Amino acid sequence: MQLGHGRGGFYTYDLIDNAGLPSADRIIGKYQDLKAGDLIPMFHESHGLAIAYKVDSFIRNEWMLRVHRPHEAEAPDSTWSWKLTLLPGGRTRLITRMKQDYRWQTPRLAAFNLILMEFGDFAMERQMLKGVRARAEYACR
Distance (Å, rounded) from C-alpha 135 to C-alpha 130? Predict the structure, then answer.
């Protein structure tokens, strides 16, 4: 619920993914009241450029879908979904999936997104999931 720049962070490599700001190590109450339509910033605004995912839909403590539209009237160019699955023994599995439409009509942007998503995102997402896990395990002690 609190993932995002200027919120709880990304629980990954903060210098790269969160403008050097440390990710939260606790639940921050003011970021727990998401609604469909809320924007989740991915990084700080620079030169009038800001990328944010919009909360499309969710069921609290079950799943969430975020979408990114470069222009509001367009179909999303990427989606980011989250799902929590209860497991035996009081455990929980978190599954996240990001899908990207590379839009080859703009080849430079498509190539940049391809490199970013297919190569960089794997390492960042893995570290993010490890960061979420560490915080969840700490909170359960």
Answer: 9
**Locus of tokens 């190569």:** 119
Q: Are the CB atoms for 68 and 77 separated by under 8 Å?
A: yes
Digit-coded pLDDT (tens) for 72-101: 777 888 899 999 999 999 899 999 998 888
Sort strands 63-68 and 39-41 into parallel, antiparallel or unpaired: unpaired
Q: pLDDT tens digits, residue range 24-77?
A: 998 899 999 999 999 888 876 654 556 788 999 999 999 999 998 877 777 888
What is the separation, in whole angstroms, between the first and last Cα of the chain? 21
SS3 state at 83: strand
d(CA 54, CA 50): 12
Three-state secondary structure readout of 95-141: EEEEEECCCCCCHHHHHHHHHHHHHHHHHHHHHHHHHHHHHHHHHCC
Q: What is the set of domains in the chain, with CATH numbers?
A: 14-139 (3.30.530)
pTM attached to this predicted model: 0.80
Between strands 52-59 and 63-68, the pairing is antiparallel
